[in-house]
Write a structure and sequence with these properties.
Largest sheet of chain B: none
Largest sheet of chain A: 5 strands, mixed
Strand order of the largest sheet of chain A: 3-23-22-19-18
Distance between the termini of chain A: 30 Å
Radius of gyration of chain A: 23 Å
Order of helices and strands of chain B: HHHHHHHHHHHHHHHH
Strand content of chain B: under 5%
Largest interface: A-B, 22 and 23 residues
Number of strands of chain B: 0
Helix content of chain A: 25-40%
Number of domains of chain B: 2
Structural class of chain B: mainly alpha
Distance between the termini of chain B: 15 Å
Oligomer: heterodimer
C-alpha cells in the first residue's frame, strides 16, 4: 500500500512509503498478524457493538433503524509532543470561549471595542436575551466542549468547528478503546497509550464542582447530577444512557421533572427529589416551554426561573450556541486574542462570510472548489462540497445561497490528513478529523488525552459525519 | 429510583413473562392439534389458546378460520397484534433501553440479544417444522434474562420492581389458563377414568410447565381437585397462584424496608394473600372455581394498578 497520491498528509506513512515513528511499533505488530485472523476480529467487533447496543438512530430514516457507526480497527496515533501542543491550543481556545460568553451576556466589550460587529448578534437565534446579565454557577458556560480539529501537515492542526452546546461522541471514544483492548490486549502492553476510561468520573467531578447556590452540601452530601435526554428515539440516546450509567447519575426525561418549591425535582418512587446539576442533552429551544419554545414536550416548565434564582446548574448553559455559531467562528482568532492577550496557538480554517458582499462574490465565483456550510447547521446536513458535487447540485445550491447569503459561510476544501483503514484487500488511506473532549469547571480545564477520530470510509471522501456514512477509530495519545 | 424507571423494569419483566407464557400456550395448542384427528376439534384447541391470551376478538376481526399455522403466526409475529411475541419482546427490550442505567450489562445484553435473535427468527412466516426452534428460543430468552437478573442485580428496589412485574404477570397468566379450562377440572359424574380427560389435564399442566412436577409429586395419578390445588395452592410450584403472591409479597416487603414505610398496596396485597392462605380447594370448588378465578384476576389487576400509583410509575 502507499499513501494516496496527491498532496495530503498521511499520518502513518512518509511520502516515500516508510512508516513514521509514531506508528512504527503498531505497524510492526500489524504486519506480523495473520490477516485472516484480523478479518475475523473485524467481524467480531461489529457483533460486539450490536450486542451491547451501541447504536444511533438516523434522522429522516423511515425504518427508524438503529444503526452502528462503523468502527475501524486501525488506531489513530498522536505523539506526546503533538498532544502537548494541541492541549495548549485547546485550553487557550476554551478559556477564550467562556470569557467571550461571559462578555456577550454582560458588558459586550468585544463589540464596544469594534472587534466583533453587532450584526453577528442581531437576529442570531443562538443568542439568548434571557441570559443577559446572568452569570451561571461558578462562572462556567461551557462545561463540556468538543473541539473539532483537522490536520493538513506534520505541524498543522486547525480548528474546523467548536462544539459548545452539547457535543456528542464521547461514548464512542470510550467504547472504541474498550473494544480495542478486548480485541488486541497485547498491543497495549507493547505501546504506552494514555488511558481515557476515567472520563465519566472526571465529568461527574467537573459537574459536581459547578453546584448551584441552592446546594448546601449538608451532612457531606454530594450534588445530585442528572442527565436529561429527549428519550430513546434520539440519535444519541445510547450515549446519554451510557454517560449517566458510568457517572452514577440519573437519566431523566422532561416528564420526570417538575419544579417544586423553587427547585427542579425528579419524580422518584418515593416522591419528588431535588436535582442540583442537570447535564442536558436537549437543545436550548426545548429546555423550558415557559421561556422558550412553548410547544416543547421535552423540557421542564419553569426550569429557567429556577436557574436564574440559583436553584440549579444547567450544563452547558443556555445560550452557549452563540459561541459555536459558524458566523462567529470566523472571528475566533480575534476572540482568542481579545480575551487571552495571546496569539492563537491553533489556527482557524480560512472562512468567507457570505453575508459580506466581497466574500459572497468570491464564493459564487468559486463554488466548485469550496465547501459551503449553513451557519446554523450541524451534522453535515445542508452543506455543499464543491469538488465532489455535480453541476446541477452546485447550481441548485447557488439559488439557495443567493436567496439568503447571510445563512452561509464558505471554506476551501482542505487536503485533510489520512490514516489507513482496514479493508479486506489491506490498508487504505482515508481522511480523518479529531474531536477531543474538554471539561470546564471552576477547578480548571481538563482535556482527556484522546478523543473521537472520525473517518470518511469512502475513498477520497472528506465527509466524516456518522450521519453521512463516516466511521470512527480509537484515538491513541502516546505517553511521554 | 425514578418512577418511570420502576415502570420500565416492571413492564420489561411482565412482557418477557407474557411472551414466555404465550410460547408455552402455542406449544400446547400445537401438541394437542397433533393428537386430534379431526379438523373441528383442532380448531377448538386453537380457539381456546386465543381465548386464554385474550386475543380472540382481535384475531376474529382479521381471520375467518382457526388454521394452526395462521393462529401461531398471528400469536408469534403479527405486527398489528399488540400481544404478539415479537411485539412483546420488542416492548420488553424497549423498556430495557429506557431503564438501561438501572440494569446490569448482563441483563441488558441478554435482553438485547434475545430480541435480536427472535427478530431474525420471526422475520419470515414460521412453519410447523421450525416452530419448535422458535418456541425454544422464546423460553430461553426469558430464562436467560431471569438468570441474569438473579445472578447480577443488586437486591434493591430495581430488583424488587422487576420481580413484582414477573409474578404479577405469572399469577395473572396461570389464573387465566385455569379459567379458560376450568370446566375440564369440574368434578362430574363422568370424570372418572376417561382418557380424554387425562389428555386435557395433562395439557393444562403442560401449559404452565407443571406436568412433570405434578406427576412426580403424585406418582403419576391425576385427579381434578389435585391439579387445581397444585396450580392454585401449592407453595412449592413456582407458577402457582400462591407462590406468585408470596413472591410479590416478599418483594413488596423489600420495598417497604428500603423506603422505610408501607403504601396502600401493601394492605391490599396482605388481604388478598391471606385469603389464599386460608381457603381450601374444597371451598374453592364449593364457591365455584370460575368465580374464584375471576375474583383473583380482578384483585391482581387492582394490586398492579395500586402499585403503579403508589410508586409514581407515571404522572
Amino acid at each position: 500500500m502507499s499513501a494516496e497520491t496527491g498532496t495530503n498528509f498521511d499520518e502513518m506513512l512518509n511520502a516515500d512509503g516508510s512508516v513514521r515513528p509514531a506508528y512504527a511499533e503498531f505497524r510492526q505488530w500489524f504486519d506480523s498478524q495473520d490477516k485472516g485472523w484480523l478479518r475475523r476480529q473485524d467481524a467480531e467487533a461489529e457483533r460486539f457493538f450490536r450486542r451491547i447496543g451501541i447504536t444511533f438512530n438516523v434522522y429522516g430514516d423511515d425504518a427508524a433503524e438503529e444503526r452502528l457507526i462503523p468502527f475501524d480497527m486501525i488506531p489513530r496515533i498522536i505523539t506526546a509532543r503533538e498532544w502537548r501542543k494541541l492541549t495548549r491550543g485547546i485550553e487557550q481556545r476554551v478559556r477564550a470561549l467562556n470569557a467571550f460568553l461571559q462578555d456577550l451576556y454582560h458588558r459586550q466589550e468585544i463589540i464596544r471595542s469594534g472587534r466583533l460587529p453587532i450584526e453577528a448578534l442581531r437576529n442570531n437565534e443562538a443568542f439568548l436575551s434571557q441570559m443577559i446579565g446572568f452569570t451561571p454557577p461558578g462562572g462556567v458556560y461551557t462545561h463540556i466542549v468538543g473541539i473539532d480539529l483537522v490536520r493538513t501537515g506534520p505541524d498543522d492542526f486547525m480548528v474546523l468547528e467548536d462544539n459548545a452546546r452539547t457535543p456528542s461522541g464521547v461514548s464512542y471514544m470510550l467504547e472504541n478503546r474498550e473494544t480495542m483492548m478486548a480485541m488486541f490486549p497485547e498491543l497495549f502492553t507493547k505501546i504506552p497509550v494514555r488511558p481515557v476510561s476515567d472520563y465519566p468520573r472526571r465529568l461527574a467531578r467537573s459537574l459536581q464542582a459547578c453546584a448551584p447556590p441552592a446546594f448546601k452540601g449538608e451532612g457531606g452530601s454530594r450534588p445530585v447530577v442528572a442527565v436529561l435526554t429527549p428519550g430513546i428515539f434520539n440519535s444519541a440516546y445510547f450515549e446519554h444512557a451510557f454517560l449517566a450509567d458510568q457517572m452514577g447519575a440519573e437519566l431523566v426525561e422532561g416528564n420526570d421533572l417538575r419544579v417544586v418549591d423553587g427547585r427542579v425535582c425528579m419524580r422518584t418512587t418515593t416522591g419528588y427529589k431535588a436535582i442540583d446539576v442537570i447535564y442536558r442533552r436537549v437543545d436550548d429551544d426545548y429546555l423550558d416551554p415557559l421561556s422558550f419554545n412553548p410547544n416543547s414536550q421535552l423540557g421542564i416548565a419553569g426550569i429557567f426561573d429556577v436557574y436564574r434564582s440559583g436553584g440549579i446548574t444547567i450544563a452547558n448553559a443556555p445560550g452557549t450556541g452563540i459561541a459555536d455559531d459558524k458566523a462567529i467562528y470566523s472571528y475566533m482568532p480575534e476572540i482568542v486574542q481579545f480575551y487571552t492577550g495571546e496569539k492563537p496557538i491553533l489556527q482557524n480554517v480560512p472562512t468567507w462570510r457570505c453575508s459580506e458582499a466581497d466574500s459572497l462574490g468570491y464564493v459564487l465565483d468559486n463554488l466548485a472548489d469550496l465547501v459551503v456550510k449553513e451557519v446554523h447547521g450541524s451534522g453535515g446536513y445542508g452543506m455543499l462540497i464543491g469538488p465532489t458535487s455535480s453541476k446541477k447540485e452546485i447550481a441548485d445550491f447557488e439559488v439557495k445561497l443567493r436567496a439568503k447569503p447571510s445563512n452561509y459561510i464558505a471554506q476551501p476544501t482542505l487536503s485533510l490528513s489520512t490514516v489507513p483503514i482496514f479493508q479486506k484487500e489491506g490498508l487504505a488511506p482515508r481522511h480523518v478529523d479529531l474531536r477531543p473532549f474538554v471539561l470546564v469547571s471552576p477547578d480548571g480545564i481538563d482535556i482527556t488525552p484522546g478523543g473521537l477520530t472520525r473517518v470518511a470510509l469512502k475513498k477520497g471522501s472528506l465527509v466524516v459525519n456518522s450521519s453521512q456514512g463516516g466511521g470512527t477509530k480509537d484515538s491513541w495519545v502516546l505517553d511521554e | 429510583m425514578l418512577g418511570r424507571a420502576a415502570n420500565g423494569v416492571f413492564w420489561m419483566s411482565r412482557y418477557l413473562e407474557r411472551a414466555e407464557n404465550t410460547a408455552r400456550l402455542i406449544d400446547v395448542g400445537f401438541h394437542l392439534a397433533l393428537t386430534r384427528g379431526n379438523r373441528q376439534s383442532q380448531d377448538e384447541e386453537w380457539k381456546s389458546v386465543l381465548t386464554t391470551t385474550g386475543l380472540l376478538d382481535d384475531y376474529c376481526s382479521k381471520h375467518v378460520d382457526f388454521h394452526g399455522t395462521q393462529v401461531f403466526n398471528y400469536l408469534l409475529r403479527d405486527r398489528d397484534n399488540p400481544g404478539s411475541v415479537l411485539n412483546m419482546v420488542e416492548n420488553a427490550r424497549t423498556n430495557a433501553r429506557v431503564v438501561r442505567t438501572s440494569l446490569t450489562n448482563a441483563v441488558w445484553e441478554t435482553t438485547n440479544e434475545g430480541w435480536m435473535h427472535l427478530r431474525d427468527l420471526l422475520a419470515r412466516p414460521v412453519r410447523e417444522t421450525s416452530l419448535g426452534e422458535v418456541l425454544t428460543q422464546i423460553r430461553r430468552t426469558g430464562t436467560l434474562v431471569r438468570g441474569a437478573i438473579e445472578g447480577t442485580m443488586l437486591r434493591n428496589e430495581v430488583f424488587n420492581f422487576s420481580r413484582i412485574g414477573t409474578f404479577i404477570e405469572r399469577a395473572d397468566n396461570t389464573a387465566r389458563i385455569l379459567d379458560v379450562k376450568y370446566y375440564v377440572l369440574l368434578p362430574s359424574a363422568a370424570w372418572v377414568g376417561s382418557s380424554l380427560d387425562n389428555v386435557q389435564w395433562d395439557t393444562l399442566l403442560r401449559s404452565v410447565a407443571g406436568n412433570r412436577a405434578y406427576s412426580w409429586l403424585n406418582a403419576g395419578s391425576m385427579d381434578p381437585r389435585g391439579i387445581a390445588r397444585f396450580l392454585i395452592l401449592d407453595g412449592q410450584f413456582p407458577r402457582s397462584l400462591i407462590f406468585s403472591y408470596e413472591k410479590i409479597r416478599s418483594n413488596m416487603a423489600g420495598l417497604a424496608k428500603e423506603y422505610g414505610h408501607e403504601v396502600p398496596s401493601h394492605e391490599l396485597l396482605r388481604n388478598a394473600g391471606a385469603r389464599l392462605h386460608q381457603i381450601t380447594i374444597e371451598e374453592i370448588f364449593e364457591g365455584g372455581l370460575h368465580e374464584f378465578l375471576q375474583d383473583f384476576i380482578g384483585k391482581t389487576i387492582e394490586i398492579a394498578g395500586s402499585i403503579a400509583a403508589d410508586y409514581r410509575f407515571s404522572e
